[in-house]
Amino acid sequence: MHCFGGINARSQDSDIRTVLRNILTITVIAFTLGFGAYCKTPEKKTGPAYLGVLYQQTRHGVEIVQIMPNSPALSAGLAIGDTIVAVDGERVGRASSLRLAILARKPGASIVLTVLRASGDRENLTATVDNLPDPIR
What we know:
The protein is of the alpha+beta class. It has helices at 16-33, 72-76, 95-103; strands at 3-4, 7-8, 49-50, 53-57, 62-67, 83-87, 90-91, 110-116, 122-128, 130-131.
């Protein structure tokens, strides 16, 4: 199989629905992660590690603005308004640092997120990153 920009380019994928499904998958991935794509194969889910949050950079770290349903972030106990200040003890000062820290992990890996709660309390939460979910069934 060949991948180009995340679109599955196998010759038997000439069906327009398959091509459109792959394009939609890339669009959702780009929105969720802010960049990038992966090559979807029917045999095995592959792709970047997924935490399941939308965030914005603040002067204190990376603030969570949305948590996806059934995501590793939700399971770990992250809440909207939490500010991630470290991943596995490494300071996270920029949104790009958080993104790279998550992408450096393989799906199934555990990470320790140090968060600053809205109350001002600092807390360590453990999340197990997952495969990016398939948006189309």
